[in-house]
Design a protein that fits this description.
The complex is a heterodimer of chains A (417) and B (92). Chain A is of the alpha/beta class and 417 residues long. Chain A contains ten helices and 18 strands. The chains are: A alpha/beta (417), B mainly beta (92).
């Protein structure tokens, strides 16, 4: 059913009790054209675009957990495209363009709020690098400004610009289209669209085996039985490595723990997304008034989904350097997610050595903001079998050929990316 | 928070250490190994396997590199030893 003011008024008659389920309960079929393992934002966006862009709906999306239980709803909801390298920029900027119209397209309020993204620089050298990045963004068709201290003060009241801090702020890169998107709405919005197109979505149903015949995908096993399929996409973030081992494929990435937290709700104080670059600490305020904060990874390999207190302390210390008023607030909730980070810190998307086995993983911190663009391009790959230009740089074989996309210039040490 | 049992100093807080990553076996540096062998040594590993062997550097303690076996799901650590091998690179 279409959500509108009329459906809202109509359901008011029955006390808003009789809304249809967002995804329709489905019986598992013995065979599907395409199986997608992982019902997160990326997997569901892929399903949505398979249906809307390519008219394919013989698709099964399965997940070992529940919709909105994984990294899609564990990030800090920030979307932006301030990347220097062409491949990273192109994908995220295309995503930013899609975010803009997605609430209408899905008929589901994703609460995209382009409130502006401030990336703070802490030295003249860093600001110069930001200028390079801003120019690259403008050449790519995005908006970017370099702000002086005075301009930052005007736009971000409450920020600490005194020079007696450990890492004083010298300027900022500002992207006006950057902002936040309600992350669980993204998962449910795509799920609802895919489900209404006839795509089957199964929660609490892990992928337990991959059957390969003649070096081609033949079937997958689940606790509900065997499912024959011609094409399989592994899109399960931190779990993708383990799923790939079921097909005998080894992926060049490590799992790392990333933490995030929210404070108690306060009156509106911060109308933008701000990132502190000396170390890492990013912050925004939700519509409910909570401050959402995240930082760097815990810095060691982990699939535990629980992190070190030292990282919380470190991230909050940096947040307080930015906005001293935060020291008066209490933390209300805290959580962790398993980020999958390849050896060059960038995503792994595309084909694998096994025919018709595709992967979409390795997004680390950067997955949420790329969601609609990756779904769009991945659907094209699954439908046509041809790797879209947008995804070519992220292919698995770049580690053999040496064509790495190392945004941070760190080398094969995922925990440092 | 991890508590790491340094063989030289005893049980210490993780924040005293910096991370050196997974223990990898690199080929000899005499150009006899193929690019494919180096690719496997640097980039690939068995992701389904835990515990893993890893290097930590007791940076704010005895400044020794140590080797640990750690379960990456539960963080349970099995006996640690000092390390003679130099890791690929520590966090500096």
């Amino acid at each position: 059913m279409k959500y509108s003011v009329f459906s809202l008024l109509g359901k008011a008659v029955t006390g808003q009790q009789k809304w249809p389920k967002i995804i329709q309960p489905q019986q598992l079929k013995p065979a599907y054209d395409i199986v997608i393992a992982g019902a997160g934002g990326h997997g569901l966006a892929t399903a949505h675009y398979l249906a809307t862009n390519h008219g394919i709906n013989d698709v099964l999306v399965l997940d070992s957990g529940w919709i909105g239980g994984g990294n899609t709803a564990r990030n800090t909801t920030i979307v932006r495209s301030d990347y220097l390298l062409n491949a990273s920029f192109a994908l995220k900027n295309f995503a930013l363009q899609l975010w803009d119209g997605l609430s209408q397209e899905l008929n589901f309020n994703l609460m995209y709020s382009p409130r502006g993204y401030f990336d703070l620089a802490h030295s003249d050298g860093e600001l110069e690098h930001f200028l390079l990045r801003a120019n690259a963004m403008r050449l790519g068709g995005a908006n970017a400004e370099i702000l002086t201290q005075k301009e930052i003060r005007k736009r971000l009241p409450g920020i600490n610009l005194t020079q007696n801090t450990r890492y004083p702020v010298s300027g900022a890169l500002f992207q006006p289209e950057g902002g936040v998107v309600r992350h669980d709405a993204v998962a449910w919005g795509f799920a609802r669209s895919a489900s209404s197109a006839g795509i089957h979505i199964l929660q609490n149903c892990p992928l337990t085996g991959i059957k390969i015949e003649n070096e081609k995908i033949a079937a997958v096993s689940t606790p509900h039985g065997r499912v024959d399929t011609g094409r399989l996409l592994l899109s399960a973030a931190g779990a993708t490595s383990k799923l790939a081992t079921l097909a005998g494929v080894s992926l060049p990435m490590e799992m790392i723990n990333v933490q995030a937290f929210v404070s108690e709700p306060v009156k509106p104080i911060l109308h933008a997304v701000v990132n502190y670059n000396a170390g890492l600490s990013y912050i925004s305020q939700t519509d409910k008034g909570e401050l959402v904060m995240g930082g760097a990874s815990d810095g060691y390999i982990s699939t535990a989904r629980r992190g070190s207190f030292a990282t919380i302390e470190d991230t909050l210390a940096r947040a307080i350097q930015m906005f001293p008023f935060i020291s008066h607030l209490r933390l209300m909730r805290h959580w962790s997610g398993t980020a999958d980070i390849p050896m060059d810190g960038n995503a792994l998307v595309g084909n694998t050595p096994i025919e018709n086995l595709f992967i979409n993983c390795g997004w680390g911190y950067a997955g949420f903001k790329a969601t609609p663009a990756v779904g769009w391009a991945m659907a094209e790959l699954l439908a046509s079998g041809v790797l879209p230009d947008l995804l070519k740089p992220f292919s698995l074989n770049r580690f053999e050929t040496g064509a790495l996309i190392d945004d941070a210039g760190v080398g094969p040490y995922p925990w440092l990316h | 928070m991890l508590l790491i049992n340094c063989p030289y100093c005893g049980e210490r807080d993780q924040s005293e250490f910096s991370y050196g990553g997974r223990i990898r076996n690199y080929p000899a540096l005499d150009s006899s190994a193929s690019i494919e062998t180096w690719h496997r040594a640097i980039h690939l590993h068995d992701s389904s396997q835990t515990p893993i062997g890893e290097y930590w550097h007791h940076e704010c303690g005895c400044e020794q590199w140590i080797e640990i076996n750690r379960d990456v799901d539960s963080h349970e650590m099995t006996p640690v030893s000092g390390s003679d091998a130099l890791p690929g690179r520590g966090q500096s």
